[in-house]
Each structure stands twice: as C-alpha cells, then as structure tokens.
Specification:
This protein has about 300 residues and is an alpha/beta fold. It contains 13 helices and 7 strands. The chain is globular and about 60 Å long.
Length: about 300
C-alpha cells in the first residue's frame, strides 16, 4: 500500500470531507450510524455523534473482556483504540499514515493501555516493530472502514495477517463497504469519471460473498455479516445529496454558509466539484452496501 495515495482522502484537498467536517464530522474517519430520529442532527453540526455510534457498535461485536490484547487496524487518529483501552484492554493501534499515528500518540499518550504503530496492516512482518506482531499475539482484531482501500490483494493479505496474529478462539470484526453483485468492476461503468474512486482512493469494493469465501480459505469461521447499509451508507448519502442540492445554487450556498460560516471560503469551482462528486455517489449507491463481518479463528 502507498501511504501518499491513502493520505489524499483525508487531507484538505478533499472538498467532500471539508464540507461534512463543517457539519461536525470528526477525525474518526468513518461514516456514522444514523437512525431516522437522529438524522436532523447531521444538519445541526452533530455528525460526530453518528460516527461514535458506529464505532461503539463495531467494538461491541468484538465481545471484549478486560485484559484482551487487541489489534486495531487502520486506527486513524486513535479514537477506537482509546475506546477499547478504556474497557481494560491492551490495544495496539496500527495505521499506514505517519501523521495519523503521531496525532493518536499525542491525543492518547496518557493512557497506559494503548500504543500506536506506523505500519501496514496487510504486512505486519515488515514493520519496524515486527516482534510486537508475532503469531497468536492478540485476542481480537478490529478493522473499522479501512479494508476498502487495501485493494483485492491487500484484503487477502490482511485476512491472512489477522488470522496469523490471532490466538486460537480469537475474533476479527471487519466493518466495510461491499459490492452487491458478483461484478465489482461494474463500478467503472457507474463511475466513469472516477469521481467516487478518486475521492476516496480505491479501485473496487469486495462482494460480500467473496469476503466469506476468502475468510473460509484463510481458516476463519464466519459467524455473521450484519447489513448496516440503510443506517450507515444510505442515510449518510441522503445527507450528502441534501447538501449537494443546496450547493447547486448561489442561494443554497448562502444558506450553507449561514449554517456553517467556515464554508464561506469555498470557491464556486469547489462547490461545483462537490456537487459532481455527490451526484457520482448517488449513481453508485444502488450497488454499494455496508456490513459488519464477524470472523472467528477456530479454537
């Protein structure tokens, strides 16, 4: 994996991230779990509330117990790692981006139960701290919305690495986008200008049935695949479409700036790009899904 490529979706050049962050989305770097009663909170600048709900639901599937050694892959700036450490676990947060690891360390340095490493989750043997990621070193492995950027080969390698570092009886919870048909390359037709793929730096999403097959081939026992498409993906994209609807006109943009003054510096060309990217997401939405996959390593 290339750290420069992965960094692009999370820097200031991403106009989509810039707009949604103005509405309260945080550095947690994931979508949010949104129910109908809480949808208005998105427009009230409380997007981070939904992100934290998703993180909590994801972590709950691990069935943590105090003392568990947990590997938190694609940990970003460390929120989920710290959350698990506060439950009495010993957590190793791993991220490919050095500045994410640095921020995580600065934010959560005071917590003795968590450490952060700049490493590739698909190839932990090559990290400078390889000894820390030995065979059967962890009770649980967590990956919240990071694997879609690994690529097909990277996802295979990640499953093998997760299996290797897990103790017998351990659990992997992988929360990610998936493709609803057997042809993930269809995204090239639905996203001809690569607006979706270039915005988030990925090539294709894994079909859910292929995740299951790869997990079985690796040795995992699949326990469940919980479909969170509606509360996570669809409601987030509905919110994005609503913002894009306002951004299509100068009057709508003034409304957005009134709601979020930080958007006053967005140039007209940037608004146009934001609308184009939101439209591209709407074109792909019907084939996309979002699920939490629970995989156990046999005891």
């Amino acid at each position: 994996m290339n750290s420069d490529t992965v960094a692009h979706p999370y820097d200031s050049t991403n106009i989509v991230l810039r707009v949604v962050k103005s509405f309260g989305w945080t550095d947690l770097l994931c979508l949010g779990y949104c129910t109908i009663p809480t949808m208005p909170m998105m427009l009230l600048g409380r997007g981070g509330f939904h992100q934290r709900r998703l993180a909590n639901r994801s972590i709950r599937l691990l069935r943590l117990v105090p003392g568990d050694r947990v590997l938190d892959t694609a940990c970003g700036t460390g929120y989920t790692s710290d959350l698990m450490a506060r439950q009495g676990c010993l957590v190793s947060g791993v991220d490919l981006l050095e500045h994410h690891v640095r921020q995580a360390g600065e934010r959560y340095a005071s917590h003795p139960g968590v450490r952060f490493f700049n490493a590739d989750a698909t190839n932990l043997r090559e990290t400078g701290s390889a000894a820390h990621f030995g065979d059967a070193a962890f009770d649980k492995v967590h990956c919240l919305q990071g694997a879609f950027q690994f690529g097909p080969d990277g996802r295979r390698r990640f499953l093998k690495e997760a299996y290797r570092v897990l103790k017998p009886g351990g659990r992997l919870v992988l929360v990610d986008f998936f493709w609803r048909t057997e042809r993930p390359d269809e995204i090239a037709v639905l996203d001809p200008e690569r607006l979706v793929r270039n915005t988030w730096q990925f090539e294709e999403f894994e079909p859910l049935h292929r995740y299951r097959r790869l997990a079985l081939e690796t040795g995992f026992t699949p326990r469940a695949a919980i479909d969170w498409t509606r509360p996570v993906l669809h409601r987030t994209l509905h919110g994005l479409a609503l913002l894009a609807g306002l951004a299509r006109s100068s009057v709508g943009r003034k409304v957005l700036v009134r709601l979020r003054p930080s958007l006053g510096s967005v140039e007209p060309a940037q608004w146009e790009r934001f609308v184009s990217i939101a439209d591209a997401h709407a074109a792909v939405r019907g084939r996309m899904g979002y699920a939490a996959v629970i995989l156990d390593k046999p005891a």
